[in-house]
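User: I'm preparing a small set of examples for a lab meeting where we compare how different chains pack in three dimensions. I only have the primary sequence for this one, and I'd like the structure in token form so I can line it up with the others. Please keep the answer compact; I'll paste it straight into my notes.
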Amino acid sequence: AASALARLEVPVALVGRVGADEDGVWLRDSLTGVNLDHLVVQGKSGRAYILVDREGERTVLAAPSTNHQLSEEDIPPESAAGSAFLYVTSSGDDGPLEAQGRLLERLAGSLRVVFDPGEPEALRGWEALADILDHTETLLVTEKAWGLLGGEPKGHPPWGPPVILVKRGALGTRMITPVRYLDFPPYVLHRREDLLGADEVFAAGYIAGLLQGLNLPQAVRLASSLAAHFLEDAGPRRYPDRKVMDAVVSSLR
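Assistant: Understood. Below is the structure token output for the 253-residue chain.
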């Protein structure tokens, strides 16, 4: 997501941990245009094993790594100074979840939070994520993760953030707010097994759209368009650039 934002020429900093190993070097070198001043280099880099069945369902197995050791000291509030948005992703363990929750408490009201939990976090139920959800403006979830959290297909729960975007694959994206739900066309136009990276491009496009002053439906449409563009020729070096984004934004206004 950080790489995708940088490719869109959105100033972005990555806060967290990365391994002090060859994988960590490769990861840092690949983050062109991303501010890494607040990235802790220690331990082993994160590694995920992704299994895809014939129906396209993915199972992600995450090996223990430096990510599981994320602490409050690794994400000082000053690392978010001057930021408009904070994009919070899966953390992998109780300690990191607590650290993220405490950070959001300290930053409350100073920036807009987009939370994108994975299915392992969703399995805990919304109560376990309440410290983060309480400070979240937009929740990004897959349809499966939304169900695991206890969400209803069309209803906005009392514990839900103001905006919930449920990514439903070939069924498109559903935006749920306290007053309505609205469906958007899918960015997965053709059946394919590998969608890796598309959700991150979607998140980057959504944040970039809001930064440019788009309204919520426009920001979702921009996010979907950029994710679809990425899937046409997927790969880290194929992230949509600012020229692609500007063309989509012009068509939306």
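A couple of notes for your slides: Strands lie at 16-18, 39-41, 47-52, 58-63, 85-89, 112-116, 138-142, 163-167, 173-176, 181-184. The chain has nine helices and ten strands.

User: Perfect, thanks.
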